Request: fold
Amino acid sequence: MSDALLTHPHVARDGQEPDGAVMETRNLHAWYGSLHVLRGIDLSIASCRITAVIGPSGCGKSTFLRCLNRMHELVPGARVAGQVLLRGADVYAPGVDPVGIRRRIGMVFQRPNPFPTMSILDNVVAGLRLAGVCDRRRLAEVAERALRQAALWDEVKDRLQKPAAALSGGQQQRLCIARALAVKPEVLLLDEPCSSLDPLSTARIEDLMEDLKREYTLVIVTHNLQQAARVSDFTALLLNGQLVEFGPTEAVFTRPRDRRTEDYITGRFG
Amino acid sequence: MRWRRFVNAMVTLLAWAAGAAVLLPLLLVLVFLIRNGLAALNWDFFTRLPGPAGEAGGGMANAIVGTLMLLVLASLLGVPLGILGGVYAAEFPSAPLARTTRFLADVLGGVPSIVVGMFAYVVVVLPTRHFSALAGGFALGLMLIPVILRTTEEVVRLVPQSVREAALALGVPWWRTIVGVVIPTAARGIVTGVMMGVARIAGETAPLLFTAFGNRFWSWSPTQPVAALPLQIYAYAISPFPDWHRQAWAGALVLMVLVLSLNVTAHALAGDQAASPWGR
Reply:
């Protein structure tokens, strides 16, 4: 399956150029205070593909993800240097509003974080509603579409007004994915989305990602090597804030160019 | 072994006794109030004006209404300032102004209530040349600010960072994240704080002495002196008339019930919050 996808150029449904880079980082550095976490990352993220970022704890993979949609700078003392290009335009250029960037690049976090006081429905449309959309019919349509995309519609359609906190962990995480999809992002970032879920919920989310890549560009951070191998088209390995290996997932896992990659994926460290 | 058991029993007993000792004053106050106040509580007490000096009968209707009016006026000042200040102090914990705000709120909370009353006298009563409900509400509102500010700050800080990030990552501007997500998430705690604050100022007497001043008649105008339960209780308690003494007890009972019910509601809300999955 993944072989076929890799050798035959995939045709995107929404007209995005297949295999073209939607995002690109150039010499990306990041700091927390004086701690130098990312040390010059050059990576391109292909359209309608799943790019996995793997590496041991503390290698900077989550920080890398948070640099892509300007969430990194929310941490006091955090700093970024270098470029992050979204369709050719630097998201860190002066005058660029991070709010607009985050609207175009959605994010799903490690722990499901639905809004605790809101119903399931309100959670899904929170992004639109907080942006000032209040047309109820449109909100309901968007909610159904997003919930269907997140493969959650059938499970919640009869209890949309129930509090989101009543859902199971896996359902909450799919709700968070639906919430991110509802604002129609161009890229969806997933920061270890399955690390707090059981294997069954994990499998559902992985299936879901496979579906989503028909329309969306996905970047997933994971510490689970099998997961990266299962779902992703491209894999990047970070070690100590440096990009050690990047390429088609097949190649990274079977014929790594760097010795450290081989050590890492064969479990010699990390 | 037996010694250890003995020590264990003694410490348990001591802890239990200390707990009971805390409870005792409240119970005694309640018992006294009910014993002395209940007898004077009747329909007249809630519906009629105070009678002429020395005559039996009459009630404290105007003082009950006056106290409610003062609480509303105080809330108009204290609730918005306290909540906004608390949100600010919680969201910009390291901003110099936030630190100053927090410190000054603590100082304001420690100012003796009579001094707050004098301050209100100087800034409201003297310029307007009138004792008034507004002046009383102003004084009580000042006392309300620090209570609400600090509780709001605490509960807003309890809102998990992940909730803020969830909103920000959706491309929601920072201020809408605060107004649309953070404050609703903390709402129950904020309401609890407001109720505790209002309960705290409801029985204040000193700030009202030379602001609201008291009134023996109905007054619906915020620019006129207004009656208040604590003032009325004080006036009746130091009077030489036995019937007024009884009414003072009744007034104290009513005030206590008002304050207790505010407190109990506040705690019930707070308890709910602790039981919900995100309040842990």
About this structure: Residues 136-149 of chain A form the longest helix (14 residues). The radius of gyration of chain A is 18 Å. Chain A has twelve helices and ten strands. Chain A has one domain: 2-113+187-265.
